[in-house]
Amino acid sequence: MPLLHIFAVLHFSTSYLNYKWLFFTWHQTTFGFNEDVALYSIRLFKWAILIHMAMAMMMYTNKRVLTPKGYNTKQHYRPPGEPVSEFFRRRFDNSRALTVAIIMLILLFCYLFWATIIKTVLTILHLRKEKRKKEMEEDEEVRGGDAEADKYRKTGPKEDESDDFFRELSIRSLRYHYVRANKEYE
User: Is residue 92 over pLDDT 70?
Assistant: First the structure.
């Protein structure tokens, strides 16, 4: 028994030193403790809502909680050997419970339809739009500028400010002013 105390003192002292060393050297930098944690938790919330709705449906259709007329406790539990379909048929035998199940299934179908089909199509359209935009920018660089800036340069006013406020906000049309300012500086 005294030997156990010696081993305990050795274990706790080495553990203390080990944990202290790990705290100050190894665990001082964290990886992945940034905005990814928040984004991951938001993705999990979607599934948490669905699971919460399923559990709420099972609680709402529980006949022991909201007891209908003519219900006894032997109907609640599934007897051994009874098929699962018979258990659920008994659980959703009244219109209230069946309505809750149908609403839950409709919501689940709508969410899965959104997550698999509509969101995928929107992602593909967004990627296509980005690809076209990138191709147009590369094509403009090959041509040596955009047509709108050239047209504005030929027909626009010669001063640095124009009367068109929206054209001033456009970055493409401001390219001419940048080039002109650099030429005047030289």
Answer: yes
If you average pLDDT over residues 23-50, what whole number do you get? 80
Q: 61: which residues sit within 8 A by CB, 6+ positions away? A: 91, 92, 96, 97, 100, 101
DSSP class per residue in the chain: -HHHHHHHHHHHHHHHHHHHHIIIIITTS-SS-SHHHHHHHHHHHHHHHHHHHHHHHHHHT-TTTSPPTT--GGGTSPPTT--HHHHHHHHT-SHHHHHHHHHHHHHHHHHHHIIIIIHHHHHHHHHHHHHHHHHHHHHHHHHTS-HHHHHHHHHS-SSS--S-HHHHH-HHHHHHHHHHHHHHH-
Residue 56 exposure: Cα atoms within 13 Å on the Cβ side? 10
Neighbours of 152 (CB within 10 A): 20
Q: What is the pLDDT of residue 61?
A: 77
Answering whether pTM is above 0.90, one says no
* Cβ proximity of 174 and 168 under 8 Å: yes
Q: Could you tell me what percent of the chain has a pLDDT over 90?
A: 18
